[in-house]
Design a protein that fits this description.
The protein is an alpha/beta fold. The chain has eight helices and 35 strands. The protein is elongated and about 105 Å long. The N and C termini lie far apart (about 100 Å). Bound molecules: uridine-diphosphate-N-acetylglucosamine and magnesium ion. The site of uridine-diphosphate-N-acetylglucosamine (UD1) has 28 residues, from strand 1, helix 3 and strand 10.
Length: about 450
Amino acid sequence: MSLKLNVVILAAGKGTRMYSEKPKVLHELAGLSLVEHVIAAAKNLNPENITLVVGHQAEDLESHLAEGGYNFVLQKEQKGTAHALEQALPFLDDNAYAIILYGDVPLTKKASLEELIALTNESTMAVLTSVVKEPQGLGRIIRDDENNIEFIIEEKDANERQKLIKEINTGIMAFPVKKLKDWLPLIKNNNSQNEFYLTDIVSLALEDKCQVKTSFCTYEYEAYGVNNMVQLAELEKIYQQERASEYMLKGVKISDPSRFDLRGEAEISADVKIDINVILEGKVKIEKNVKIGANCILKNCTIKQGSEIFPNTIIEDSFIGEYCNIGPFARIRPGTELKDHAKIGNFVETKKTIIGQGSKVNHLSYVGDSELGEGVNIGAGTITCNYDGVNKFKTTIGNNVFIGSNTALVAPVIVGNGATVGAGSTITKDVKADQLALTRNKQNNIDGWKRPSKK
Ligand code: UD1
Ligand code: MG
């Protein structure tokens, strides 16, 4: 292909059937808005520019996508797909091809789009079609005796015979921009909806002695648009099933692919086991022989080989070394780093903390703004008191420290290598290496003690 590529994404429609205050194309599929899926597909084609035609709740859309460097054009009134595309013409380069995508059709594949563009040249436009089981509501592809496309008829304008046709217009088309600029102004709105149909461009191209080619998309769902919450959920399911299959085919064991959710990007090695209801968000990396238990949420984290995450654990913005154990019911908050062979047990919360190699926080603890050396044992119910209501302070614990159960470490505080803290202590002063720190009163047992009686 010699010409450059411009992309236009139509996204001015209202999305009435979503019954939502949010613009339809900002509803999320797999953690990313519909329109961002379309933009990602567009970017895969390395276009010269991307223009979004916006209308309903245009400001919401523009602010959501402000960072991307896209062109926005406002279609004040929604007078049809041809009218929408016309608004984008000022951004289209005469020496380019334009490909038209819909903001609410999120799962079109790069290969299908590339094939369509490959069919296009200075005097040829191309339409992406699909053969679907249920063509209701969609434009039908009408072909002549030689199987060439003649025109597209919208369902509302089709006769009974045309309605039986299962080959539909996906809406995705590619044009040489120069020709597009000739044809678009000729489109009329003399149809049942009084809209300017982009589909009419097929007949205009043929009248102009240009060729109109078609290509099929590989999967039916590539053409599916989202009009309501049911369709959104269906597409989500398709997307998740496909991701799960990709991982499984590379050797990841997923207990039930219908209960696996990826909302971002994950690099998962072979021989990883993922139990049911696991959600992976953002950027996740999971190395070989890691086991993820049921109901875990892993967001922006790396889990090195051989580690096991027990059920109902949440890990966010953290790094987990090799052969660590975490959970069940642990919450690993941002800024946590576990060195190899560390253990975090049930009902433990960590935040902005380094847990040294082989160190253990096994039960019911909060460890925040802390750094623990190697071989540390933190007893049940230990709390780092890192916050005075205004500022945060650090707790530093050396190697081979033993902190007795139910200890409060009032930060800032340092506990030196090899030190021991007795159970139930409230540590407010540093403990030096190898010292024993005790802060509780000595136990006093009184014989024959009578509890008070009710008067
Ligand atoms: C359109 C096609 C139909 C195709 C179907 C595929 C036409 C006339 N019909 O029908 O052949 O089978 O898509 O899904 O093109 N939009 C605007 N401004 C407008 C109208 C629409 O931006 O004035 C945008 C919508 O936001 C949406 C897209 O264009 O992203 C398609 O519009 P929609 O109303 O859904 O078209 P359909 O009637 O489904
Ligand atoms: Mg539609």
